[in-house]
Amino acid sequence: MLSPFDSLRERLLAAGIAPRHARRYVAELGEHLADLTAEEERAGHGRRDAEARALLRLGTADDLAAAMTARPELRSWSTRAPWAAYLVVPPAVLAIGFAATIGVIMAIVEYHRPAAGMHAVLPGWFGAAAGALTQFDTLVLPVLLGWSVGLAAAVRRVRPSWPVIGMIALALVGAAVQFEVVLPAEPDGTGELSLGFSLLPPFPDLASFAARGTLNLLLTLAPYLAYRRQPAADATTVGI
After folding, report:
1. 49 in helix, strand or coil?
2. What is the CA 86 to chain-centroid distance, rounded?
3. Mind listing the pLDDT tens digit for each residue in 55-87?
4. Average pLDDT for 210-238
5. Helix, strand, coil abundance in the chain, percent, nearest 5
6. Who is most buried in 43, 163, 179, 190, counting CB within 10 A?
7. Could you give the 3-state DSSP secondary structure of residue 193?
8. Gyration radius of the chain's alpha carbons
């Protein structure tokens, strides 16, 4: 059942009000409406008439929305700085993911080093584990972050311009990173941790970059745009 304030909540979200503030405001209005309705019922009005009178006493939709939109501190930070929320933060989180993986791999290597200055004697499972971590960072993490960008934009009813730009940038950055662990050829040999970027000279693998970038966009941007094309749910309510 729709709340009398569902359309107001949608209006606040579209105006950039943070979802938590919009939810709390609508909940408070619902409680206040219940109190006013109870007063009208005690005054002798029927249920339906009491609700209509209570809505009139509460104020118009414009008045209720203005009480929130007039306070810029209630707007979500992604509305105030969309360039940071959608263009800077997701690649930064991706970089943190790569840094965390490097830290885990180096910790495993150091743990299996017999003594300082000696080569690490790596267990048999190390190659598969390191490969899984690097594959997750290069193939899965950019897609997960892209979905997070789309979900955050949808929840906040953000216009698609900045989310689309951010998802494109994230897909390309994720596709450009080349991350690989090369195991030692011999048990006491030296391995290598390789981290490169396809968009920097000498442009090591542009074909792989193009394929991965296209795949990232298909898996992240395409679902978001398809969602945006769906008709909005009918939030029309009686009273406001």
Report:
1. helix
2. 9
3. 888 888 888 898 898 888 888 888 889 999 999
4. 76
5. 65, 5, 25
6. 163
7. strand
8. 27
In this predicted structure, the answer to whether residue 230 has a pLDDT above a threshold of 80 is no
Backbone angles phi, psi at 231, to 5 degrees: -65, 140
- Selection from 217, 218, 232, 223 nearest residue 166 by Cα: 217
Q: What amino acid is encoded at 175 in this protein?
A: A
Spatial distance between the Cα atoms of 213 and 207, rounded to a whole number of angstroms: 10
The helix (H) or strand (E) run that includes residue 187 is none
Of 27, 181, 172, the closest CA to residue 87 belongs to 172
Ranges of beta strands (E only) in 108-231 are 177-182, 192-197
107, two tokens = 């910790």
Q: List the domain boundaries for the chain.
A: 6-74, 78-229
Report CA-CA distances (Å) from 5 to 25, 27, 39, 59, 151: 10, 9, 20, 12, 23
9/226 Cα distance (integer angstroms): 23
- Contact assessment for residue 74 and residue 21, using Cβ atoms and an 8 Å cutoff: yes
Distance CA 92, CA 96 (A): 6
- Report residue 67 as tokens: 């009480």
User: Helix 161-176 vs helix 141-155: angle between axes, to the nearest 10 degrees?
Assistant: 170
